[in-house]
Amino acid sequence: RVKNLAEHTDRLLFLTGTALENRVDEMISLISILRPDIASQLHGMASLSSAPQFREAIAPVYYRRKQEDVLRELPEKTESEEWCTLSAEEETIYEQAVLAKQYNETRRVSWNVEDLRTSSKAKRMLELIDEATAENRKIIVFSFFLDTIRKVSMLLGSRCTEPINGSVSPHRRQEILDNFERAPAGTVLLAQIQAGGTGLNIQAASVVILCEPQLKPSIENQAIARAYRMNQTRNVLVYRLLCKDTVDEKITNLLAEKQKAFDAFADKSVAAAKENLEVDSKTFGNLIQEEIDRINAKKNHQ
Q1: Which of 109, 12, 58 is nearest to 268 (CA)?
Q2: Number of structural domains found in the chain
Q3: Residues 214-242: pLDDT tens digits?
Q4: pTM exceeds cut of 0.85
Q5: Looking at 215, 244, 273, which one is the last position of a domain?
Q6: Where's the Helicase C-terminal domain (predicted)?
Q7: Are residues 81 and 58 in the same domain?
Q8: Domain identity same for 110 and 200
Q9: Which residue among 59, 103, 119, 210 is buried most deeply as judged by most CB within 10 Å?
Q10: How far is CA 61 from CA 6, 45, 47, 198, in A?
Q11: Is 106 within 8 Å of 113 (Cβ atoms)?
């Protein structure tokens, strides 16, 4: 549809915050609509070694401005990894999920205990919420999983809003945000990260808590940007709740490596990255196999 419109206009401009979310090919597809002649030169340039040539080729059609380039008045943002140690119960549940290759359950580590009051992540979350309340702040808590959101909502009770998820209508979402805006310090906005992580302005909050690492950095970045955006008046604190010796650690380390390679080129070209920045199903399967091997080795030495 866009391509058809492009063929009948004299001027064409694409604006996007995520020109590249997963793969270089996604950006090449956009460029093929803007300048097919340039796009035809890019095939075969998706490797890291071709990054300089890629940047040079797309220069006539691509211009990147980062948040800090245009919003110089934004306050400071501090990101922190909050590492939790599994209890014996959590470790048993986690290892059972790993050995059964229940991928989603492994990612819900610590949140899938029967009583959330015993969860190591939930305990740290409550501490962070109390600290934020003492500093007269409001909080957003994001999770990918609906069941985690449901459990956190039950744990927090009147301290939190009605959760925002994919089933909540746009009108109701706005009502929830309006209520959150008027709510006292210490109030928590709960949101499924793919529903509340885009298209919303939530500057009333200055603390963001992520319940688990996401498989795409862009999902986390967009969620954080709900609070860290124009008209934010306070420094923003971002906390990632993570568990040692679990897939949390493996996902975090893997994405850090991918992001490091990506950032080597990002100032000049968001597209010049070797691989997609997400942990795809094949890669995640490999991480689970590494965990299976680790758990079996531990059992053999007991």
Answers
A1: 58
A2: 2
A3: 998 888 888 999 998 878 889 999 999 99
A4: no
A5: 244
A6: 124-278
A7: no
A8: yes
A9: 119
A10: 15, 16, 20, 26
A11: no
Q: Which residues contact 288 (CB under 8 A, 6 or more apart)?
A: 98, 101, 103, 106, 247
Rounded Cα distance, 22 and 289, in Å = 23
Same domain, 92 and 46: no
Pair (209, 123) in one structural domain: yes
**In angstroms, rounded to a whole number, what is the distance separating the alpha carbons of residues 100 and 98?**
5
Residues 252-273, mean pLDDT to the nearest whole number = 63
- 189-210 pLDDT, tens per residue? 999 998 876 668 899 999 999 9
- For residue 206, how far is the Cα from the chain centroid? 17
SS3 at position 190: strand
DSSP string, 226-239: TTSSTT--S-EEEE
Q: Are residues 252 and 242 in contact, defined by beta-carbon separation less than 8 angstroms?
A: yes
Reported confidence tier of residue 274, pLDDT bands at 50, 70, 90: very low
Cα–Cα distance for residue pair 180/12, rounded to 1 Å: 39
Token digits for 42? 């890019």
What residue numbers bound the domain in which 49 lies? 2-63+254-299
Rg of the chain, C-alpha, whole Å: 21
